């Protein structure tokens, strides 16, 4: 199966329009998540908080919505965009994609309402935190169905032989996503009525939430494949091995719904722990194999530090690898856990940012160029995430509990205070990098294409 | 090169299938704390706990909870959003049987690297040997609300 580059000509205009919509939804969600993060900060600022029209629970509602937009919607809308690139041509595929996009966007609008209207009990459960309000759940469901519609059209690629190697990876991503949805649905059906809402939210999103981590990893691997093709003209591994890496993650996801039959009571401890072990057993090998291929490429081929594709490859590999390594030293509930997942997810974010700037924008007739802003963005975000993760790791090793703020953090030693200061410094750098990325991507997504500007005489 | 790539791909898929089979079959519960359980009336349990506190308190509090130093043997701990009560001071090297009862929703007690789920109305009894010195970390490992991450108990070995 030959590996081939994505090209502007390979995407018909209808698919380009759909892809642009998904990328706008993904990057727009990051922009809204960033605004919410700003409001979060203001809601904790003395004096300023008195001027805000929201109650004391706004912090948690905004936190939940921020996480869902920057963690779930960003990745799932990215999967939508990837599906528009990879799906086999056809009228039905186009219709499913358009309908999926409309539902995906409508769902995001709905789930924003409870936070802004200061309604519903926030729940900081794992993976998909929620605001306990009907509109939030409906929004989440509508968005999920939208992405599912876009994903379904990719399934035939699993048994066909797509020309572009990454297309097979994206089809595996669609399968993983659908498996996660089945897990959510099974959990919802199996949890007894009348279960405490906190426990309900935790367990309904537990299994599928773990499966979504396989999807995030696969998105990174698709980004590595595509960025390597963009930078070096071929993927980091021979196509057969790359496809085996994609398939290996998909196999684990496809088997995951069986746990609802084999893994005991959905509210039991066995059930919870078997999904934890999914990430230990099923996740490391495929990105390790592909990561080694990327590392070999980076070492053996010329290094172009001005190229967005090269920067995204190098930094995403480094940050992801550091985060993965930190995963072997987790505490029970201290900040070493966020240290691990911030670095791992930071690696995925860097890969996806590279995918947007170096692969998707050119497919839409835009270019991010090789200017200073692009380089600074990758460095700020990448090194910022590393510093952030390092601070969390040091603080966690000293016993600072996760998901706490202010006095609850118990910063009673200089070591803890310095560590959390390092976290803040890393956050600042990463936020700057994120803001530059969102700005660059949105400006290019909203302006006329290079060809249109040339036609109208602006270039 | 092509045949090498195919061989590597086959090896990777074979390894994945073996790992997958191991995962699906591996429901050993190695991280689950061994525990006995019995049904209990919460009012009786609170009475027993209060009696233990009255008999063994050392006159101090830790984070608002009375500190008790019970004799080796049965120790009663009330569990609720978001506390384990009372705070315990244990004699190094001695063995204790912690009776844990959740009074409101499902919690868990993660002690060291293992964990036991605590459902309302069912007491879980776990055996704990106090270390020579220092703290034994006990905290809730099952999400139970906004204060979940602060739900950390106090058990300390004091000579």
From TrEMBL, chain A:
Name of the protein in its database record: Cytochrome oxidase subunit I profile domain-containing protein
Signal peptide: none
SUPFAM superfamilies: Cytochrome c oxidase subunit I-like
A Gene Ontology biological process term: aerobic respiration
Pfam family name, one: COX1
Transmembrane segments: 21-43, 63-87, 99-116, 136-155, 167-191, 203-227, 239-262, 274-298, 310-331, 343-364, 376-398, 418-443
GO molecular function: cytochrome-c oxidase activity; heme binding
InterPro entries, alphabetized: Cyt_c_oxase-like_su1_sf, Cyt_C_Oxase_1
Assigned GO CC terms: membrane
This protein's UniProt keywords: Membrane, Transmembrane, Transmembrane helix
UniProt organism field: Paramagnetospirillum kuznetsovii
From TrEMBL, chain B:
GO CC terms of this entry: membrane
Gene3D superfamilies listed in its UniProt record: Cupredoxins - blue copper proteins
A molecular function (GO) term: copper ion binding
PROSITE patterns: COX2_CUA
Residues of the Cytochrome oxidase subunit II copper A binding domain: 70-159
Protein name: Quinol oxidase
Organism lineage: Bacteria, Pseudomonadati, Pseudomonadota, Alphaproteobacteria, Rhodospirillales
